[in-house]
Amino acid sequence: MNPEKKLSEEKVFKDPVHRYIHVRDKLIWDLIGTKEFQRLRRIKQLGTTYLTFHGAEHSRFSHSLGVYEIIRRIIDDVFKGRDEWDEGERLVTLCAALLHDVGHGPFSHSFEKVFHLDHESFTQKIILGETEVNNVLKEEGADFPTKVSEVIAKTYKNKQVISLISSQIDADRMDYLLRDAYYTGVSYGNFDMERILRTMRPREDMVVFKSSGMHAVEDYIMSRYQMYWQVYFHPVTRSAEVILSKILHRAKKLYLNGYEFKYHPTHFESIFNGSVTLEDYIRLDEGVAFYYFQQWLDEEDKILKDLCDRFLNRRLFQYIEFNALLQLDKWSELTNLFKKAGIDPEYYLVPDSSSDLPYDYYRPGEEEERLPIYLLMGNNDIRELSRESFIVEAISGKKRTDHKLYFPLDLINDTSSKKKYKEEIKRILGI
Ligand code: NI
Question: What topology is assigned to 6-232 in CATH?
Answer without folding.
Answer: Hypothetical protein af1432 (1.10.3210)
